[in-house]
Design brief:
The protein is α+β, with helices and mostly antiparallel strands. Helices cover 16% and strands 28% of the residues. Strands 1, 2, 3, 4, 5, 6, 7, 8, 9, 10, 11, 12 and 13 form a 13-stranded mixed sheet that branches.
């Protein structure tokens, strides 16, 4: 009997080539899906972040511009001076205005939008359409230049930090300057913050009860007195401000704040109490930033003698600014070309166009949205000029 030994083939361990290929294919598929989900989520997050930045930038832009526009033409004696502030815009002005600066109406910041020598004080506002030239801020492609085809706006007003004082007109107008003695806070003369060469807004709305001491003259003074507001430059010595027209730049056209006649009588007569506040001129426009993109810019003046224009980049990514104006008695907002009297503007409708300002594509290097395009949004707001409301 023969012994037959049977051998069986043992099964091999591991994967076959086909199984390996199938596994690799499934792994690549899963990795691709995971990667696409990650990329999609990153795109959505970037788009959401960019949109949030747009909204925040627009909110800040409106807040900053509105802060200036609302105060247009205002000063510490009360409402904005000029026609209609007594309740009827067809009536006489409550206040009279004089621009005493030597360079009055020659540059944008020295202009109260009022003809010389005197006029109603309602001013401090000027708008520019997309094609209107802004003196001092040229169209162009250099850093700080205004972008062609965008609107701009100038506003001027007195600062909210005002001080009471006594106005002392010179006895001899030709040789002496008017002076203002301030009632400074307990911290001393330096507490008022003025320095030689500052531009100030001075206003007076009443005479003191006791003036010259002569009842007849005093009564006539009260009847003749007209509330006034003036723009001038001062030299400072302690709590006293002097309206000198020598040694200052740009300087004053005269030493009394008023042209052609003194704002008030010689020192022998009653002198008005006044309010003195810093003068704040502001220009808003869309300009070219240092990165060859567009930003919202704000221009104002430096303090002290020989004031210079200070240009500040406020909000990056603002590509356009469109402004329309509400005219007193008008039915709808109109463009700058339809505005005949800037003193009649009661509100502005402002559209700020924002573009994403980070990431990959576009003139500003915008961060792209989920559909691979740059984000751009228009934001519109209406801002009323407080002192011109009924």
């Amino acid at each position: 009997m023969s012994l037959v030994v049977l051998f069986r083939r043992r099964p091999s361990n591991g994967f076959t080539l086909i199984e390996l290929l199938i596994g690799l294919a499934l792994g690549v598929l899963v990795a691709a899906v995971a990667t696409s989900v990650f990329i999609m989520n990153a795109r959505v997050r970037e788009a959401t972040d960019s949109l949030s930045r747009l909204q925040e930038g627009a909110r800040v832009a409106f807040e900053l511009i509105a802060r200036d526009v609302r105060q247009t033409g205002g000063f510490s004696c009360g409402r904005e001076a000029g026609t209609g502030d007594s309740g009827s815009r067809g009536g006489a002005a409550d206040y009279r205005f004089s621009n005493a600066l030597l360079n009055a109406n020659t540059v944008w910041w020295s202009t109260w939008t009022a003809p010389l020598p005197t006029t109603d004080a309602r001013g401090g506002f000027r708008g520019y359409g997309p094609a209107d030239v802004t003196l001092g801020t040229a169209f162009g492609t250099a850093t700080g230049n205004r972008v062609a085809g965008t609107s701009a706006i100038d506003v001027r007003y007195a600062g909210t930090r005002a001080f009471d004082g006594a106005f002392l007109a010179p006895a001899v107008v030709a040789t002496n300057a008017a002076r203002i003695t301030l009632n400074v806070p307990a911290t001393g003369a330096s507490g008022h913050g003025f320095q030689t060469g500052d531009l100030v807004v001075v206003c007076a709305n009443a005479l003191p009860p006791v003036g010259s001491g002569n009842p007849v003259v005093q009564g006539q003074d009260q009847r003749d007195f007209v509330p006034w507001v003036a723009l001038g430059q001062v030299s400072v010595a302690g709590s006293e401000l002097t309206l000198a027209y020598i040694g200052l730049t740009p300087g004053n056209r005269n030493a009394t704040l008023w042209d052609p006649a003194p704002v008030w009588a010689p020192a022998a007569r009653a002198q008005p109490r006044v309010q003195v506040a810093p003068y704040i001129p502001v220009r808003w426009y869309v300009g070219i930033n240092a990165r060859n993109g567009r930003s919202l810019f704000r221009e104002t003046l430096s303090a002290g003698n020989s004031p210079r224009v200070i240009r500040e980049e406020m909000i990056e990514g603002v590509t356009d600014l469109r402004i329309d104006y509400a005219i007193d008695g008008g039915a709808d907002f109109v463009g700058s070309a339809a505005v005949v009297d800037w003193a009649a503007v009661t509100a502005v409708r402002m559209t700020v166009v924002m573009d994403t300002a980070q990431g990959g594509v576009g003139t500003e290097g915008q961060r792209v949205s989920a559909d691979f395009d740059a984000l751009e949004r228009d934001f519109t707001n209406v801002i009323a000029i407080r002192s011109r409301l009924p």
